[in-house]
Amino acid sequence: MFMKAIKVREFGAPDVLKLEETQDLKPDTRQVLVKIKAIGVNPVEAYIRSGGYARKPNLPYTPGGDAAGIVEEVGREVNNFKAGERVYTSGTVSGAYAEMAVCAEHQVHPLPENVSFKQGAALGVPYATACYALFHKAHARPGETVLVHGGSGGVGIAAVQLAIAAGMAVIATGGSQKGRKLVEAQGVGCVLDHGAPGYLDAIKDLTDNRGPDVIVELLANVNLENDLEILAARGRIVVIGSRGKIEIDPRQLMSRNAEISGMVLFNADETELKSVHARIIAGLKNGSLNPVVGKEFPLKNAAQAHTAIMEPGAYGKIVLVT
After folding, report:
1. How far apart are CA 304 and CA 307, in angstroms?
2. Which of 284, 136, 275 is nearest to 216 (CA)?
3. Euclidean distance between CA atoms 265 and 44, whole angstroms
4. How many helices (H) and strands (E) does the chain have?
5. I need a surface site. Which of 26, 48, 172, 279 has the fewest CB within 10 A?
6. At what angle do helices 43-50 and 302-309 cross, to 10 degrees?
7. What pLDDT is recorded for position 243?
8. C-alpha angle with apex 128: 124 to 134, nearest 5 degrees?
9. How far is Cα of residue 306 from the mean position of the Cα atoms in its chain?
10. What is the model's pLDDT at position 220?
11. Tens of pLDDT, residues 245-273
12. What architecture (CATH level 2) is domain 2-123+291-321?
């Protein structure tokens, strides 16, 4: 029997993503085989495919770790899942850009009935990244003010929803009118255009000149210097994304007793990830978390999805459907 999967046989432009027929997969003793319904596309997958990322998989490979679907088969030592259950994945063994994927048991999580497969595909990297940034790196607390600097993409929307659910005041920015309206629809009363002159002054005004306690930074090479000018005393900046270098003045940190930390979800340990996904699943069940799906592409058009994920004006989560 055969299935279809995207294969990358050389690093390069998006057109190296090719749909091929490949052998069906079988789970090992502590693995779960998932029939994929939808796949989340993340910027890191485009960086890896290009060959410019620090971690390079062995060629050929199937990209992706975020997906949602139905358990097809489980290994004989798997106790937490059975065939027919709805799940989402936060990592795979075989790659998610495919009709089937093998996952380690700890990479699979129950998908509540009120969440669609497309929404489930938006959870793995975006929601886990936002949750880890807010609660494990920034130690954000109820009552604090959080600035999500780039709130309309997959991670940004997740950070907004998680912060609101945890009782924080949220300010967010977006680069397009459509994106800002999307963020407003999440319940954020203060959504600013980070391309408009004077938006930093507006953030100061909104916080009575105190500044945000936490800044979730999605494009540090553009925004980090500005973040330091508005950060509250003892504030924390978590850098999630950056596409280049930037020069900052460390005295801005010193004068505020402030912190900058960077993060990559790959560095979270299993205990931290268990906590992260417990919070996500609870939020899905009570309705405080509601993933927003933007553009959809069929699996065969993965190259178009990789082009779209790098374009400005993010709006929700880009997904592939099988």
Report:
1. 5
2. 136
3. 11
4. 10, 15
5. 26
6. 110
7. 82
8. 160
9. 15
10. 82
11. 988 889 998 999 999 999 999 899 989 99
12. Alpha-Beta Complex (3.90)
Contacts of 130 by beta carbon, 8 Å cutoff, 6+ apart: 155, 156, 158, 159, 162, 216, 240
Sign of the Cα torsion 226, 317, 98, 279 reads: positive
Looking at the chain, which residues constitute the CATH 3.90.180.10 domain(s)? 2-123+291-321
Give the residue ranges of the chain where pLDDT is below 50: none
Strand partners, 34: 71, 101
| DSSP result, 21-61 | EEEPP---TTEEEEEEEEEE--HHHHHHHHT-SSS-PPSSB
Top CATH class, 126-265: alpha beta
How confident is the model at residue 314, as a pLDDT? Answer: 66
* 175-202 b/e (C-beta count within 10 Å ≥ 16 → b): beeebbebbeebebebbbbbeeeeebeb
> Measured between alpha carbons, how far is residue 171 from residues 21, 103, 130 in Å?
47, 37, 15
* Angstrom distance (rounded) from CA 8 to CA 20: 10
Q: Which two tokens stand for residue 234?
A: 């003892």
Which residues 6+ apart lie within 8 Å of 289 measured at CB?
Answer: 127, 158, 161, 162, 165, 280, 283
Question: Range(s) for CATH 3.40.50.720 in the chain?
Answer: 126-265
